Amino acid sequence: MSITEPQDHQDLRAAVSALGAKYGRAYFTQVVNEGRHTDELWSEAGKLGYLGVSLPEEYGGGGGGIAELSIVLEELGAAGCPLLMLIVTPAITGTVIARFGTESQKREWLPGLADGSRKMAFGITEPDAGSNSHRITTTARRDGDDWILTGRKVFVSGVDIADATLIVSRTEDARTGRLKPCLFIVPRDTPGFQRTMIPMELFGPEKQFELVLDEVRLPADALVGDEDAGLFQLFAGLNPERIMTAAMALGIGRLAMGVSVEYARTRQVWKGGPIGVHQAIAHPLAQAHVELELARLMMQKAAALYDSGDDAAAGEAANMAKYAAAEAAVKAVDQSVHTLGGNGLTKEFGLAQLITASRVARIAPVSREMILNYISHQTLGLPKSY
Ligand SMILES: Cc1cc2nc3c(=O)[nH]c(=O)nc-3n(C[C@H](O)[C@H](O)[C@H](O)COP(=O)(O)OP(=O)(O)OC[C@H]3O[C@@H](n4cnc5c(N)ncnc54)[C@H](O)[C@@H]3O)c2cc1C
Predict the structure, then answer these.
(1) Which domain holds residue 81?
(2) If you measure from the C-alpha of residue 132 to the centroid of ligand 1, how many angstroms do you get, rounded to a whole number?
(3) Name one GO molecular function term (predicted).
């Protein structure tokens, strides 16, 4: 891994940034206000190869890795269009299918995920498990060649617009104890697969859903990978999820900083110059910029480790990157709102809606505290309290 970004990554960054600028925050805002989805941007990004940049070339992808996909999400976010489904569809479900799916699952799903014509959601969180994934109770039992899934999920994004959801469950014979997950592709209209939208205080086109799986019957080939593979297969998808959440946070942080720095440069209320001449305004913005840059370095390290196949080292780095980027984004947005004074809360400048957007990165897919727990135990060797 090079500390400076290689030329092909710089070129990708510039090209995606140009696509983002073509749509911009005005497009995103209009789509959300009209209750639509970012279909035009999604499909153009698919045609240009950006959605599938990390998927294998033989299935219509670009043959790159999470490093490239994280550039796509960061740049679209910085341009005002943070596409949450990029985390769920190519990064989690695309990666898991590409690494562990059967040949027919790869042929069925990857070309569509790559060109943007199909989407897949991802459901792991449960109402009674939350941060403790080992407590999930969604259960798969065999019935002849079929599988029957029963359980509940919560906060699952984009189920309404996804052709299917990749559901994390456990098999009946591993119903308690440490999670031995197995993953199933559940098409949206499968009988017994019910969804209810959760009203959220978020400004984005993707909705979150509570799911009920009531005796959902699936064919044998709905199972992705090996039912005995354990956590390894799941983390093949969760590490990219963390890296991509870092990318989304960085994009949102940069979006806010673009507005606030320009405001600090031009807003004048005293004789001596714009408000940006005051260090009480300039220094926190400078600090926020430094912290976003540092977080990107960690994200690039995590992506490089993941793409090199070092899943173990990528785990620690992905957690650190998600933590650092979320904290940097929350701070950048907070300082940006403050820099604009009353305008920080107007719809015209659109910063207040980034407060909840940046907080998502602190909570999901794994909370700040659970990352600090992971670092305390895994990295520092401190004892566990739970
Ligand atoms: C916008 C959004 C989109 C989402 N999309 C998806 C999706 O597509 N698919 C999906 O499966 N899930 C999704 N989630 C769910 C998300 O991953 C969970 O919200 C997250 O994992 C936290 O779980 P929880 O909400 O149950 O919080 P809880 O586990 O109830 O935690 C509540 C609080 O307690 C703290 N806490 C818990 N345990 C500990 C501990 N041991 N030590 C210290 N503190 C602790 C947490 O840090 C948190 O602050 C989404 C969530 C949001 C907000």
Answers:
(1) 7-118
(2) 9
(3) oxidoreductase activity
**Mean pLDDT of all residues in the chain?**
96
Q: Does the CB atom of residue 167 touch ligand 1 within 6 A?
A: no
| pLDDT of res. 3 | 82
Give the end of a domain, one of 224, 247, 269: 224
Residues of the chain with pLDDT > 90: what percent? Answer: 92
42 Cβ contact list (under 8 Å, min separation 6)? 51, 83, 85, 116
The structural domain count of the chain equals 3
**Ligand 1: which residue has its CA nearest to atom 18?**
364
pTM of the model: 0.97
CATH assignment of the domain containing 268: 1.20.140.10
**What pLDDT sits at residue 75?**
98
Residue 169 and residue 184 in contact, taking contact as beta carbons nearer than 8 Å: yes
Mean pLDDT value across residues 232-261: 95
Ligand 1 binding pocket includes 72 (Cβ within 6 Å): no
In whole angstroms, give the CA distance from residue 273 to residue 278. 9
Asked if pLDDT for residue 175 goes beyond 70, the answer is no
CA distance 188 to 159: 7
> In angstroms, what CA-CA distances link 151 with 34, 55, 145, 177, 198?
33, 31, 20, 17, 17
Ligand 1 within 6 A of CB of 323 = no
Domain endpoint, select from 224, 249, 273:
224
Is residue 133 within 6 Å of ligand 1 at its C-beta? Answer: no
Q: How far is the CA of 125 from the centre of ligand 1 (A)?
A: 8
Ligand 1 pocket test: which of 87, 363, 370 has the largest number of ligand atoms within 8 Å of its C-beta? 363
**Does the beta carbon of 234 lie inside 6 Å of ligand 1?**
no
Q: Please name the amino acid found at residue 78.
A: A
